[in-house]
C-alpha cells in the first residue's frame, strides 16, 4: 500500500461541487483505500493572474494504484468533470495533480514527483500542511518552503468556510 498526496483546484462553475465530485470519484475507486481531506482555501490565481479566484484543497490517499495508474485516474476525473485545456495555467473546472507518491522521485516529464511547482505555490503548501507537516522536498520541509514565500503570497490563500 502506498501513500500519495493530490492537489485539487477549480475556478469555473460550481467550484465546491467540482471538488466534491472529484473526491467522490477518488473514493469510489476500489484501489483507493482511504482519503483524507485538507481544509478548503479560496486563492488568488497564480501564474496567469487575469482569471477568477480558485478553490484549492489537497487530499492524502492510501492506494494500491501504481504512480502512472494514479495519474491516469486523476486525468480521467478531469475529463469526466468537463475539463477542457485552453491556456496554460488558465481557467478550469478541475485540476488534479499528483504532488507526492511515497518517497518516489521521478523526473519523467509525464509524471514529475514531487510535483515541481509545489515549492512556489502557497495554494498547495497551505492545504498540504493541514495533512502532513513532515513532508519534505530535497530534504527541506514544506513548512520551510512556505516560510520562504512572501507575506503577500501567503495572504492570497484564505480558508474557505463552508
Ligand atoms: N505530478 C504530476 N501530476 C499531474 N500531471 C503531471 C505531473 N507531472 C507531469 N505531469 C504532466 O503534466 C501535463 C499537463 O498537466 P496539466 O494540464 O494538469 O498542467 P497544469 O495543471 O495546467 O499546470 P501545472 O502542472 O503547473 O499545475 C500532463 O499531461 C501530465 O502528464
Ligand atoms: N490559485 C491557483 N492558481 C492556479 C491554480 C490553482 O489551482 N490555484 N492552478 C493553475 C494551473 O495548474 C494555475 N494557477
UniProtKB/TrEMBL annotation:
Pathway as given in its UniProt record? Cofactor biosynthesis; tetrahydrofolate biosynthesis; 2-amino-4-hydroxy-6-hydroxymethyl-7,8-dihydropteridine diphosphate from 7,8-dihydroneopterin triphosphate: step 4/4
Q: Does the keyword Isomerase apply?
A: no
Gene3D superfamilies assigned: 7,8-Dihydro-6-hydroxymethylpterin-pyrophosphokinase HPPK (3.30.70.560)
- The top EC class is transferase
- Pfam families according to UniProt: HPPK
Q: Keywords on this record?
A: ATP-binding, Folate biosynthesis, Kinase, Nucleotide-binding, Transferase
Q: Where is the 7,8-dihydro-6-hydroxymethylpterin-pyrophosphokinase domain?
A: 88-99
Q: What would be an example GO MF term here?
A: 2-amino-4-hydroxy-6-hydroxymethyldihydropteridine diphosphokinase activity
Any idea of its EC number?
2.7.6.3
> Which reaction(s) does its UniProt entry say it catalyses?
6-hydroxymethyl-7,8-dihydropterin + ATP = (7,8-dihydropterin-6-yl)methyl diphosphate + AMP + H(+)
Q: Which NCBIfam families match?
A: folK
Please give the name of this protein.
Answer: 2-amino-4-hydroxy-6-hydroxymethyldihydropteridine diphosphokinase
What species does this protein belong to?
Answer: Intestinibacter bartlettii
Amino acid at each position: 500500500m502506498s501513500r500519495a498526496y493530490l492537489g485539487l483546484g477549480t475556478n469555473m462553475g460550481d467550484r465546491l461541487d467540482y471538488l466534491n465530485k472529484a473526491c467522490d470519484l477518488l473514493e469510489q475507486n476500489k484501489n483507493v483505500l482511504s482519503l483524507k481531506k485538507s481544509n478548503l482555501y479560496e486563492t488568488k490565481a497564480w501564474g496567469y493572474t487575469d482569471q477568477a479566484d480558485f478553490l484549492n484543497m489537497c487530499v492524502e490517499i492510501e492506494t494500491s494504484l501504481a504512480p502512472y495508474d494514479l495519474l491516469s485516474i486523476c486525468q480521467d476525473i478531469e475529463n469526466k468533470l468537463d475539463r477542457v485545456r485552453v491556456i496554460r495555467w488558465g481557467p478550469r473546472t478541475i485540476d488534479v495533480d499528483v504532488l507526492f507518491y511515497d518517497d518516489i522521485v521521478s523526473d519523467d516529464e509525464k509524471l514529475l514527483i514531487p510535483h515541481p511547482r509545489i515549492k512556489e505555490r502557497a495554494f498547495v503548501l497551505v492545504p498540504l500542511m493541514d495533512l502532513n507537516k513532515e513532508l519534505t522536498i530535497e530534504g527541506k520541509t514544506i513548512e520551510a518552503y512556505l516560510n520562504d514565500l512572501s507575506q503577500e503570497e501567503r495572504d492570497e490563500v484564505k480558508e474557505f468556510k463552508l
